[in-house]
Amino acid sequence: MTNRLPSWVRSRLPSAADVAEISSWTYKKGLATVCQEARCPNRGDCFHRRTATFLLLGPTCTRNCRFCAVEHGPPSHAPADEPLRVASSVKALGLQFAVITSVTRDDLPDGGAGVFAETIGAIRRHCPSAGVEALVPDFQGSEEALRVVVDAYPDVLSHNLETVPRLYPQLRQGASYERSLELLERAREWAPKMLTKSGIMVGVGETFDEVLALVSDLVRVGCHALTIGQYLQPTILHHPVEKYLHPDEFEELKSLAMARGMSKVVAGPLVRSSFHAGEIMGHTS
Asked: Cβ distance 25 to 264 under 8 Å?
C-alpha cells in the first residue's frame, strides 16, 4: 500500500473555459457526466477535444464498488426526456464523439437498457455525424436487456471488467467476472461488425500474470480494444492503492497484451475507459 503520489500520475491543469462550458451546459440541462461524478483527471482534456461521457439514469448507483467515486444509495429519477436532452447537448456543444454510460440500476426491470437505446437513437437523429459509444453495466446477465442496446447499434459497445477475477469479491460486490465476459461475447456474436471494448484499472493488488490471463479471456470472446489505467483512490473510505505503476510498466503491459492478440490497447497512468474514446476507435482525429 502506498500513499505517495508520483509525478507521472498528476494530470495537467484543464482548460477552465472548456470545463466551465460543458459543465454549465449539462447542469442546466439536468444531465450528469461521469467525467464530473467520478472525478476523472482527464475531463479538461476530453472537453477540449469535444468529447464527453454522459451518465444516464441519475448520478446515484445501486451498487457500492469499493473503487468508484460515483455516489451510492437509493436511485434518483432521471427526466423522462433524458435521451433527447443528451442528444441536444451533443449537437449544441459540437461533440464529435459521445460516450453514454450509466450508473448500475439493478432496481429497473431492464437495467436501463431502454434508455441507452433511446439515447443512441436520439443522437443518431440529431447528430448523425457524431460517433457513439455505449459503456453499459452488466444488466445482471439479462440477454434481453443487452439485445435492446445491441439492436440500437452504437459504434462501440463497451463493458469494463475493471479488475482481475481474484479481486472481484473485494472490489466489485454484486458483479461477476464470467457474466461480464459473457456480455462482451454475446455482443460480438450478435453484431460481428460492431466494435467491442473493455477497460481495467491496475495498482489494486493484481499481478502481471493475472492481467495477461484477463487479456487472453478478452481475446477469446472477441473483444477488440482494451484500456489500462492507474487506479487512484477517490477517498480514504475507498480501496487503497497498492502500487503506482511506472509508465514503462504500462508500455510493457501494452506490448504483452498486443502480443496476446488484442487489436487495440491504450495503457498509461491517466488512461480511463473513455479517455480519447473517439480517437481510439478511429472516429475522430
From this structure: no
The DSSP code sequence of 21-41 is HHHHHHHHTT-EEHHHHTT-T
The pLDDT tens digits for 164-211 are 999 999 888 888 999 999 999 999 999 999 999 999 999 999 999 999
pLDDT one-digit tens code per residue, 64-95: 666 666 666 777 777 788 999 999 888 888 88
Number of structural domains (the chain) is 1
Within-domain flag for 285: no
| Through-space distance between the first and last CA atoms of the chain, rounded to whole angstroms | 38
Say whether pLDDT at 41 is over 70. Answer: no
pLDDT at site 206? 97
Kindly state the cell numbers that stand for 275.
479517455
Residue 252 covered by a domain: yes
Supply the pLDDT for residue 108: 85
5, part of any domain: no
CB 271 within 8 A of CB 228: yes
Q: What CATH code is carried by the domain that includes residue 207?
A: 3.20.20.70
How far apart are alpha carbons 53 and 59 in whole angstroms?
A: 13
CA–CA distance, 186 with 178 (Å, rounded to integer): 12
| Cell numbers for 82 | 433524458
CA angle (53, 67, 75) in 5-degree steps: 60
Sheet with 97-102, side-by-side order of all strands: 32-33, 51-56, 97-102, 131-135, 156-158, 195-202, 225-230, 264-268
Residue 1 maps to a domain: no
CB atoms near residue 272 (< 10 Å): 25
CA atoms of 128 and 74, how far apart (whole Å): 35
Domain span including residue 237: 13-280
The SS3 assignment for 123 reads helix
Q: State the number of CA atoms in the 13 A half-sphere of 122 facing the CB.
A: 19
Residue carrying the nine cell digits 469494463: 160
